[in-house]
Amino acid sequence: MSHPRILTIHQFEQDIATPEFYCNTFKDHIACHHGTISKPHKHDFYVTVIFTEGEGIHEIDFHTYPIRPGSVFFLKPGQTHHWNYSKNTEGYIFLHSENFYVLEFLSRSLQNFPFYYSAHNTPYLNLNQENIHKMVPYFQLLKREFDAAAILKKQKIIGLIDLIYIDLSRLYLEQAPTDTIKSTTYIKKLRALEKLIENQYLAEKSPAFYADLLNITPKHLNRITQTTLGKTTVALITDRVLLEAKRMLVYSNDSFTNIARHLGYEDYAYFSKLFKQKTGLTPSQFKNTYL
């Protein structure tokens, strides 16, 4: 079994007036791209989906979420996902690259929206009927604008995306724990930490290493991760290692020993013990259960 395919935004964009952007109804999206997206895959772009009809499940990085009317999903580049849904499933989907958004708003970042600012924030939002009626017209207008040939088309599309993200952020924070931290300083440090972990986790698993790169003490770094996510720095590093371990166990044919070695553990017994401690299953049990 091979690693999940990485899809690019250029496989979906359809309009030279709005490169690096795509929008469609979910039903038509599936009809056009079912062969491309029917298996677990990753993207190099951002995805937002809202469901208005149907049911099913959506698995994102080995976490399973329900598909039902009012389900909204936010996917960041690099996440592995796939879905299983009923034939009557309806909704809207739009995709865009990071550049498509940030080049228009040079003073903003997509990571300022709560569903994007950390890989540990849930990519799922459940809307009630009132909020479904509030949000769906935005998606419908976005689809109409994408299909039209009007002046200032790109500017209006980006404006609509911004409105969608702002309103969904407000609803997202209403459903988040009441102690959700919105400190800009902490969020920036957390974002920098996650980027460093993404680049270094195979070789470096010490909180002190990352604290040194961020020019803060390990104690302060731990305070940031505990305050923003309720997790220790060690837990964040371990979570990233275990996510990659799960991906390799399921999507590659490497031996368990080679997988452990790739992840920085020469002692497979130690790696297996750590994996079971965190997931409740041995690597072998996890692979067999998942498949």
TrEMBL record:
Q: Where is the HTH araC/xylS-type domain?
A: 191-289
Top-level taxonomic group: Bacteria
Report the InterPro entries cross-referenced here: AraC-bd, Homeodomain-like_sf, HTH-like, HTH_AraC, RmlC-like_jellyroll, Tscrpt_reg_AraC-type_HTH
Under Pfam families, the record lists: AraC_binding, HTH_18
Spell out the SUPFAM superfamilies in the cross-references: Homeodomain-like, Regulatory protein AraC
Tell whether DNA-binding is among the UniProt keywords: yes
Question: Which keywords does the record carry?
Answer: DNA-binding, Transcription, Transcription regulation
According to the UniProt entry, its GO molecular function terms are: DNA-binding transcription factor activity; sequence-specific DNA binding
Task: State the protein's name.
Answer: AraC-type DNA-binding protein
